[in-house]
Amino acid sequence: NDFDAIQPLKALVNLYQQFEERLRKVKQRLNYFSFNELIMLTHKMLAENEKIRLKYVNRFKHILIDEFQDTNDLRWEIIRLIASDEEGNLRKEGLFIVGDKKQSIYGFSQADVEVMNRAQDELIKISDNALIEFNGNYRASQEYIQHVVNPFFRKIFTLPEYPFEASFEDTHYPQHNSSDEEIAKKTDIVCDIHATSYESAEGEYVPAIHAAYMAKKYLHWAEDAGIKEDVVIGILLRSFTHINEYLKIFQKSNLPFQIIGERNLFSQQEVYDLFHFIGVMINPHDDVALIGLMRSPFFCFEDTMIYKLKNRPKETSIYDSLENDEEYASLHKTISKWRHSARLVPVDILLQTILAHAHRELGYVSETGGPQRLANIDKIIHVLHSLQMEGNSLQEIHDYLLYQLDHKSDVAQGELPTSAKVQIMTIHKAKGLELPAVIIPELDAINAKKNSGIVYHSRLIPGEQFEVGITIKEGVESKKTNLLENIKRQDKLEQKAEDKRLFYVAVTRAKYRIALLSEFKGNPSKNSWWNEYVAKPFELPSTMVQKEWDSVKAPDKIDVRFANFKELHGTLKRDLNEHNKKLVWKEPPEQKKLQKLWMVTPHTIMESVFPEIIFEDDSEKKSPATNKRAFGSIFHAVIANHWWNISAYKKEISSYVENT
């Protein structure tokens, strides 16, 4: 089979070379470089031009590389070129590398524990004192280190067999630790190991419900323990595959949460709504855009009302048919008015004005993830403002949005104005953070990464080139080459090693407490994180039999239990009902809403800061116009002379008033 793969591999390489050449020409024409090209060209420039290399060698007397475990071969080579003398020998001083092999989790960018191993070996050859090791945890409480970090990872990180594996030594609690001893004393349980099942779930996403239940429990603990941090809990996920389920359940459970790092702004419905609005402002006969706008919180038309419009004459657009129908006449009038305004007012200001009226913003807030939707609208409005300031027409803005929506551009959603107490993020996003408590759900889920495909690559020999293996077809039968099988075995070993490190990063984000949650569909999965990192090391039951779980003797400060799904779901519902009973509706005071982006004059500021009433109480009965002019001239003088502090400039202001 390996011989049979030679021709297809040649064809694959040839196809790739053609693709790369065509891509190079396009980027050259557009004057573009990819991030990877910047790295490769930097390396090439330093490797091939000694004069430039020595310039940077002499310029940087001290070089510090943080998070070195996330460095790949090419980046280390760039550092070596800058940190080596004229003979190519690595400098003996002025090079400081900081890294933790257990936190190397960026394999997708070729970051590799082996790179750090090789760098470490080179530095040790230069100096016997090159290696400084410390195992202090400056984040977690002493109890958390003693009962979670050390017992877990002594068992998970076994003695390395391969160069891409990390090892573990017991972590100690240093003197200058950031945790609060009083909070640690009030935390009786530092680790909750809880499992439940999908039985009686009725179609709801059990891991999200399980996580919401624990989040409620942890918020009560945080209040009792006196935790003052803005963010209390991190819900750490391996991926955002089911993020919408978490969003629905957490919103429904009335949890104060936000999702961090979701880069799908141009997949959100509210962005489509704004896009449809602009489309209708340009061309009201665009039926798709108009229907989208009618269904949005701009108008909130029911589907039955929209469905009626199918009875109009085929040659008539929906917009034209609205004018002569009493049921839709007000809609036609409103859109006509907006289109007239769009010719006179910048679209960002027009949108802010429209959304501020008729409870349209409330329409978005009341939907799932409401605050996030408003943040996304604000972000798009700022984008529209910038595009207009650059001189783009409404049609060009529409084309820009259409491109972003079609390509699902990788853009982060809008930032919320304040941090929520519960934050949902991926483990990769959590790297570098510290949180009072961490919840890791879905531990029984199998990571499907690299389990499918016809082309695989890996480095079979340490330090050598990457090998490529493929699946070939003979008729309808697929055959795997021996090289491919070896690569897949290597891949599996490397993935297993990185999974351990990823789990380590997740667990070590917590300062005081962690919940390790698993949700079974049948008996626990054999190749899951739950089985490998929790059940096996602590000899937990491999079934859902309640008696077996009840007989488990949990270590000190660790709570192990199999929870009945109906009970935890019922608790969530009861908490929500109790919360709803306490809600009292208060009519908000009416306020004049200022636009977020506004071209202002001193007159605008004066009118917004000083209400009309200041001119009404006048003993000399002068006309309001005279009073306004007098006050206006004083206001201009204050602005022009920067007399902001009335106490400091009282003399100057009095003199101006008397002499004007």
Keywords:
Rossmann fold, seven-stranded parallel sheet, 26 helices
CATH architecture of the largest domain: 3-Layer(aba) Sandwich
Sheet having the most strands: 7 strands, parallel
Overall geometry comes to globular
CATH superfamily of the largest domain: P-loop containing nucleotide triphosphate hydrolases
CATH topology (level 3) name of the largest domain? Rossmann fold
Computed over alpha carbons, the radius of gyration is 32 Å
Q: Report the uncertain regions.
A: 611-620
Range of strand content: 5-15%
The assigned structural class equals alpha/beta
Helical segment count: 26
- Got a strand count? 12
> What is the helix fraction of residues, given as a range?
40-55%
What report would you give on this structure?
- It is built from 26 helices and 12 strands.
- It has 660 residues and is α/β, with parallel strands linked by helices.
- The chain folds into 5 domains: 33-126, P-loop containing nucleotide triphosphate hydrolases (Rossmann fold); 143-174, no CATH class; 191-262 and 419-579, P-loop containing nucleotide triphosphate hydrolases (Rossmann fold, 3-Layer(aba) Sandwich), CATH 3.40.50.300; 265-406, PCRA, domain 4, CATH 1.10.486; 602-659, no CATH class.
- α2 runs parallel beside α4 and α8 packs across α23.
- It starts with 5 loop residues before the first helix and ends with a helix.
SSE topology:
Layout: H1 6-30, H2 35-48, H3 50-59, E1 63-65, H4 73-82, E2 95-97, H5 113-126, H6 142-156, H7 181-185, E3 191-197, H8 206-225, E4 233-237, H9 243-252, E5 257-259, H10 269-282, H11 287-295, H12 303-308, H13 318-323, H14 329-342, H15 347-355, H16 360-365, H17 370-389, H18 394-406, E6 422-426, H19 427-430, E7 435-440, E8 455-458, E9 467-474, E10 477-480, H20 482-507, E11 510-520, H21 529-538, H22 546-550, E12 558-562, H23 565-582, H24 602-609, H25 624-641, H26 650-659
Parallel strand pairs: 1-2, 3-11, 3-12, 4-6, 4-7, 5-6, 7-11
Antiparallel strand pairs: 8-9, 9-10
Helix pairs in contact: 2-4, 8-9, 8-23, 10-11, 10-18, 15-17
